Amino acid sequence: MPFKIKLKIHYYVMLATALIIIFATRYSSVKIWDKLQLQIEDTLQIVSLQNSLTAENELHTKQDFLYGLAKQLPSNPAAKKDQVLRLLQPFTAIYNVKRFGFVDPNGHAYTTDGHDADLSGQDFFEAGMQGRSYITDIREDDITEAEQINVFSVPVYHQNGNMISGVLFATYRTTTFNDLLDTECFDGNGYSCIIKQSGRIIMAARHSPFYKNKNIFYTLRNIDNDNLTGISEMETAMEQNKSGLASCNIKGSHYIYYTPLASSITDSQWYLLTIVPASVLTERLDQVFFYVKLLLAIIVIVLLGAFFYYVYTYWAQKKQLTTLAYVDPLTNGDNYASFKEKMKKKKGTSGYIISTDIFEFRIINNICGVQKGNEVLQHVWQIIIRHLSEHELAAHIHADRFIFFWADDPSTSISERIDQINEEIGLLAAELNTPRIQLYLGIYHTDKPEQTEEGYGCANQAKHAVKTRMDKNYSLYEEINFKQWLENHRLEDGFEEAIQNHRFEIWYQPKYSTKDQNVVSAEALVRWRDVDGNLIPPYKFIPLFEQNGMISVLDEYVFDAVCAQQRQWQSEGRHVLPVSVNISRSSLYYSTIVKKYAAILNSYELPAQNIQLEITESAAVDNSEIMTLIDQFHEIGFHLLLDDFGTGYSSLSTLNQMHFDTLKLDKSLIDHIGDTNGEKLLYYIIKLAQSLGLKITAEGVEYKNQFEFLQQLACDDIQGYYFSKPLPSAEYAALL
Ligand code: C2E
Ligand code: MG
Ligand code: MG
Asked: Does the structure show a pLDDT above 90 at 727?
């Protein structure tokens, strides 16, 4: 499943989990809120009931006290003012009464604070006269200074009967009830007030907004006119003698719990209101909710953390997998899969897909070890990517195989770019101390870079075709000689069968002594007798087998066959002359070659002098280990010839460093006989070789003048058409 979709699913799962948690928390917090609300109501109710009991108790006490006093009054108190006042006076201070007073049935009153007044219209007087005890609502003292007061009154009876002789009253400052009304609960933040059912305020705490007001509903409607329904509901409930909880905005949200007082206090129904700022109660809720919110925040943070951690690890894993899938472990660059992906994005452009490997890389690995081989690959990779411009790509496919894409560039030709790479690659061997490192490259031009597989296939075909080319190390697909290519395939495919069925024939080209023109030795040259009976010359398959590594098998086959032939000629009693066998430079890279050849030689019980070994100059220049090999071959007793001297890398120093026995001058040098410079060159080469103690064999001698020139210079042996072409074994045997 693509990464993005997976991530999306995880994102939704995470979101759903978060939502479930948030809703669950929200749901439980609502439940907690409701529970707490109920608890608050319960608390308020309990507190309110306590308050009402206290209030009732207090009011009863005050009334009972007044009744007690009334009973102690002398008969006809109206006439015994002094006596009455003397009786009452001491209690004013003790019971914190502003004044006591007695009102006669006509409404004339005298008081302990020295006033006489007409109270005939007063409600408390009238109630008293009707035989009822009474407590007034909150009012201003109209006897003395303006002050909020409540008056308690009781009827005073004649001692002998039911006749009412007046009314005894006690005036309390409303503030006296503060202690009663300022409830202790809720840390002193709550307060109470006592009202009539109608809302008329009986007593109110001094700091309450109702202290100086007449009607609580009227006041509430004024203060909180957004809550008219709530206020009306409370009013209705009170009319029905119910208790309950209301909330009002009295300079901030407040709870009001209303509960009726015992009806025995007065004739009408009174209510005690306990008023508490909502904040006092919600503080507790807030605390709970603080923890709920904290918990929620922690859950969300943990969830988010878990999600991001998950996404991070998933991403890291994905990256690791991508690295494994798209990064080549050897070069740390792109691999083929990544290359193909990137090539898809090149759609619409055109350029060259180039396939390359390293010429005989297997040999570098064998000689220098895998680690060195890897080092070579890394250096080659670095060179390849150094030669990429901005929008070009490269990848290491595996082993020594690389692919790269060069975009069309009108300013530089493909051959120029290849030459630049070749130049740098050419310096690598010296830098890394390895045998020669050379690329061969197959190039395919395409305007469909997204079809990478097809392009790579064509580039590969071009690369295979280049193996047969001697002039350059790269080939364009368009230039492929398909006939040649197919022929090479046929030869490669037929090789094993040819070895098994002895289709390789050994021909012998005699070498003649310049002194007496007698045959002194011969060179074994291989030919392939095709199934149709035709002979395939070595130039058709030797370079091919040198490329693909089959040559070492063939060389060994030839060596074995020559040994067998010599053995046979020997046993036939012929005069056996030494025969030189060619060893391709590729074969030399196998360090076991000396042992193998020695073993073959021994198996035919042949003296080593019967076989000579020809090693080409280029091989000698390339491989520093050749010196050791030469020494080892010498130890066995082989005679060693430096073949093809004068071609390719001519190096006179080779003559000195390597302990060859014979120098074979290449035909290209011999061809120059007749021109002064060529002859001079030959002269010095021969003199130098002779001074180093080397024997000289001239190859490719076709003409008499060549022979004579070489004879003059005391060249030892001649090999060439002038004397003889390579001969089938039987013909050569006839010469012995
Ligand atoms: P080479 O080792 O330098 O062999 C000499 C080549 O020169 C032979 O070609 C020979 O026929 C040719 N030659 C000799 N005299 C003349 C001449 O007067 N004129 C001309 N035009 N050519 C002359 P051949 O047999 O075609 O072999 C070509 C090359 O193939 C050999 O060059 C050698 O490098 C390689 N070769 C042949 N047999 C073997 C083999 O068994 N193993 C390996 N590794 N290479 C082999
Ligand atoms: Mg040779
Ligand atoms: Mg040669």
From this structure: yes
- Tell me what pLDDT residue 265 has: 66
Largest CA distance in the chain: 191
Least confident of 186-190, 263-267, 542-546, 714-718: 263-267
Of all residues in the chain, what percent carry a pLDDT higher than 90?
51
**Ligand 3 is a single-atom ion; what residues have CB below 5 A from it?**
643-644, 699
Q: Which atom of ligand 1 is nearest to the CA of 583?
A: 44
pTM of the entire predicted model? 0.50
Q: How far apart are CA 172 and CA 101, in angstroms?
A: 12
Distance 427 CA to ligand 2 centre (A): 29
State the helix-helix crossing angle for 216-223 and 228-239, rounded to 10 degrees.
160
In the prediction, which pLDDT does 78 show? Answer: 86
Q: Ligand 3 mean position to 618 CA, how many Å? A: 12
The protein residue whose alpha carbon is closest to atom 2 in ligand 1 is 582
Judged by its nearest atom, the ligand closest to the C-alpha of residue 511 is 1
Q: In Å, what is the CA distance from 308 to each residue of 19, 256, 311?
A: 17, 50, 5
Taking 3-state DSSP, the helix, strand and coil percentages for the chain, each rounded to the nearest 5, stand at: 50, 20, 30
What does pLDDT average to over the chain?
Answer: 88
Q: What percent of the chain has pLDDT over 70?
A: 95
Cα separation, 277 vs 190, whole angstroms: 7
- Structure tokens given for 12: 């939704």
For 509, left (φ over 0), alpha (ψ -120 to 50), or beta? beta
Q: Whose CA is nearest to atom 8 of ligand 1?
A: 525
Point out which residues pair with 83 in neighbouring strands. Answer: none
Q: What is the pLDDT of residue 621?
A: 46
Mutate to test the pocket of ligand 1, among 507, 525, 589, 727 (most ligand atoms within 8 A of CB): 525
From the CA of 617, the nearest ligand is 3
Segment holding 57, helix H or strand E = helix 3-72
Q: Which residues surround ligand 2, an ion (CB under 5 A)?
A: 582, 614, 643
Q: Which amino acid is at 694?
A: L
Is residue 546 in contact with ligand 1, taking CB distance under 6 Å? no
Ligand 3 centroid to residue 647 C-alpha, Å: 9
| Predicted pLDDT at 267 | 67
Going from the Cα of 672 to the center of ligand 3, the distance in angstroms, rounded, reads: 16
Q: Alpha-carbon distance 697 to 613, whole Å?
A: 13
The closest residue, in CA terms, to atom 22 on ligand 1 is: 700
pLDDT for residue 103 is more than 70: yes
pLDDT tens for 338-382 read 999 999 999 999 999 999 999 888 888 877 888 999 999 999 999
**Positive or negative: CA dihedral 282, 288, 289, 290:** positive
The pLDDT tens digits of the residues spanning 196-210 come to 888 988 888 777 778
pLDDT of residue 450: 95
Q: Are 174 and 206 in contact (CB under 8 A)?
A: yes
Q: Is the CB of 260 under 6 A from ligand 1?
A: no
pLDDT in tens, 47-74: 888 888 888 888 888 889 999 999 998 8
Say how far apart CA 66 and CA 203 lie, in whole Å: 19
Q: Mean pLDDT throughout 25-35?
A: 82
Ligand nearest to the CA of 528: 1
Out of 523, 545, 581, 582, mutate this one to test ligand 1's pocket (max ligand atoms within 8 Å of CB): namely 582
Going by C-alpha positions, the residue among 258, 239, 236, 238 that lies closest to residue 247 is 258
Residue 588 or 388, more confident: 388
Secondary structure (DSSP) of 430-481: HHHT-S---EEEEEEEES-TT-HHHHHHHHHHHHHHHTT-SS-SEEEGGG--
Cα 380 to middle of ligand 3, angstroms: 33
| The pLDDT of residue 465 | 77
Ligand 3 centroid to residue 552 C-alpha, Å: 18
Residue positions counted in the chain: 736
